[in-house]
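Exercise (ungraded).
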Amino acid sequence: MDVVLVNVAGLALIGLIAWYFWMSKPDGTVAGITSDGTQEAFIVVKGGYSPDTIRVKAGTPVRLVFNRQESDPCSERVVLDDFGVSADLPQGSNVPVAFTPTEPGSYEFACQMGMLRGTILVS
Amino acid sequence: MNPSYPLDIPVDWKAYIDDMNAMNTKAKDVKLRDPVCGMKVNSTALRVDTHPELGFCSEHCRSRFLADPERYVAATVADETLPTPPDRAEVIGGIHLSVDGMTCASCVSTVESALKSVPGVIDARVNFAASTATVDTGLELPASVLTDAVSKAGYHAEEIDPEVDTSDVERIESENRYRLLMRKFWFAAIVSLPVIYFSYPEVFPGIPEKGSTALWWIWLAMGVLTLPVLAWSGSQFFTGAAAAFRHRSANMHTLIATGISAAWLYSTVAVLFPGFFPDEMLRDVFYDVTSVVTALVVLGTALELRARARTSEAMKKLIGLQAKTARVVRDGDKIDIPVNEVVLGDVVVVRPGEKVPVDGTVVSGSSAVDESMVTGEPIPVEKTEGATVIGATINRTGSFKFQATRVGKETMLAQIIRMVRDAQGSKAPIQRTVDKVSGYFVPAVMILAVATFMTWYTFGPSPALIYAVITMVTVLVIACPCALGLATPTSLMVGIGKGAENGILIRSGDALETAHRIDAVVVDKTGTVTRGEPSLTDLTAFEGYNEDEILRLAASAERGSEHPLGEAIVQAAAERGLSLSDPDQFSAVPGHGIEARVDGHEVVLGTLKLMADRGVAAGPAEEVLEQLSEQGKTAMVVGVDGALAGIVAVADTIKEDSTEAIARLHRLGLEVVMLTGDNQRTAAAIARSVGIDRVLAEVLPDEKATQIKLLQAEGKTVAMVGDGINDAPALAQADVGLAMGTGTDVAMESGDITLVKGSLTGVATAIELSKATMRNIHQNLVGAFAYNTLGIPIAAGLLYPWFGILLSPLIAGAAMAFSSVTVVTNANRLRRFKPAHREEVS
């Protein structure tokens, strides 16, 4: 009896892990428009990117301002591979990263080792 | 790779670059914005004719712009007309301070409020770990006002230049972190000793037997002792896991935190609520797993941090090259000023042993300058008036004065640093594949761990629950996503940094990776294999004349000529110390030669046809001419007073190290193809003498890219080596474009790889380095994948049914801790990379 229970619970846990990490998609934060027309979002880097999903419009410049608030070296660099830009993130400083998305789609940004990830949704 | 090359840009690259340089000198501070990526670029950036107000950070951005200019223009205009707010609209300045004397977190708020109380300060943020403060100001404040405020609060502060000193800040950060991790390790390690002892009553003597009250008390003590190990030594696992969890992601911290807390929780339940486990055998503790795994993984993290700091050593060295002060002449006085205060046009004095502070042109004096730190060339270079000097190089012998032509962020060193930094932040294509895998890795391991638990619980031997817990914890602990994640970027960091040390600037991970797959190297003849300027190679004198006389007469006659061949002859005469006369009645016969009267003699210099026209009998000259042109040289007959006197031959000479470089390329198994506009015979002669296999001669400049395409159509991965100015389209067409620099005029934007020193040996070194780096990356990846794909099934107990082998979680922890250290250490082996030497070639 307990074997059945353990297995049912195990399967449920597996389903939960798969759903939580892979299937569910957060809505994301819409980047604000600054006075110069740039779409801007502030991202705190601490064990991950907060917010980690940014919604922007194609064809308008985007500026993501990263602020790293941890000493873990994993996050010391952010790479936006699809836009060919990257930046070192010294602790505590605001580091702007600018680019202009041209094609709608979903683009990833990540730390250099691909452990921390975020998404830029371009519409 | 292969960015499509826009055809509607100016073809006259030399003039184009000159124009740009002129513009740069006139207005050094012109800041342009790349309309495609939004980056601020200076006026030396790539441009387009139709929109002179725009600049581009790369060929990639420019071709994107050219594909649809309208789309970007509107956005840029809007962008340019309004000021760019830094972070908040009213913040106009940012000052960075290093703060000494902060001993506790409460000091942070004291320093912050001291800074914020200064009028004009909008915000101040103190970073305790890094001992730094960042101050946003609303007006131009001198840093001294802020440092005074900090001093009054009882601390000491100094201004730091974030551009230069980030490495210092990073070093302090990393040192602090390392020390903290080591303290955490020692605590966990010391706690582990008694915990291990009392965990194995069957191994160690003197332990009360299982089930006794005494052992229960000991177990309880172990549970209490290991709690701070979890809460302090292992705190980063829990905070890291929680932060990742909130972002719906999981990482190494998640696995370790789950593993060690599962072991602790099971043990604690067994101690406090033994009734929960009806079977006596199930009442066991695994506090040793908690403390030992924590100790090992923390130690591994600390060692990895140490090793990773070394991967960026090349970059730190580059930053450290920058001179701190410069001695400039202002109002007739020599004054020492900080290097960032040197302005364009300043005359700078450099004495022996000093660093050249910025880029410039020598105006007086001469010396030998060691440029090895920038070009990778070990032999000091002679500098005389008119020569270009590069900032950060070291003056060896004499004193000289030079005029600053590039300062601040425009200097070659600053550009190199920027390029290396960008390249180190780029990804090699191979990493994109790894990233896809690692995105699924950690949750997959968690699922496997649950599946392992279920399998052991269902089918395992008694006590099944113990086996299930132990194997689940082992699976969680052994998996090492870090090894996978570190494999590519660490090698790339070291490889690209090593390139910079050797004067090879690799633009991106793409370029580095493609370079190792190259089958054919196409080299442009002029300026690449050869010096690109003609010089005198042969001198033949016929009866009645000696060589010096022939040369003197020919050179005197050519004095009036502006033809490069003529200049080569004049130059050769000057080198031999011959005194020349001024020619009278100089006249050029287009396409054939010149005639002039020198010291009363009628001198004719040119082709056989010209000689025939002037009644000079060719005689023995014909045979010599035949031989010379066979060797690819341009020969001219010299006739004096109507009689044959001699022959002078001029040719573009081969650079000394071209033959060696081509031998090295061959040794790498590459086909070397020479591309030139010259005729087949001249080209073949040069190719033969340097050992090139294949020649594409009589190629017009605009056909070079097509020739590359044809080679690519043969299925080859093609590298093109050129000067980056005339060959830009071909460089862009090639899979890897290598631009050769000369002096300070490095066309860094035009190639995937830039060779600071204009020598073909750099090409061989670049390809060797690329191969070495990719080999290193492959070793790392194969190691990391093999470790995980073998380690996880073994940890899950796959070998148990057949061999009875089950991995201890302690061994798993040790393996995990050292697998990522191994990866980084292996990447650091690349630091020992050395280009192949001549001896090895022959």
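Further reading is listed at the end of the chapter. For now, observe: Chain A touches chain B through 61 residues (CB under 8 Å). The first strand of chain A starts at residue 29 and ends at 30.
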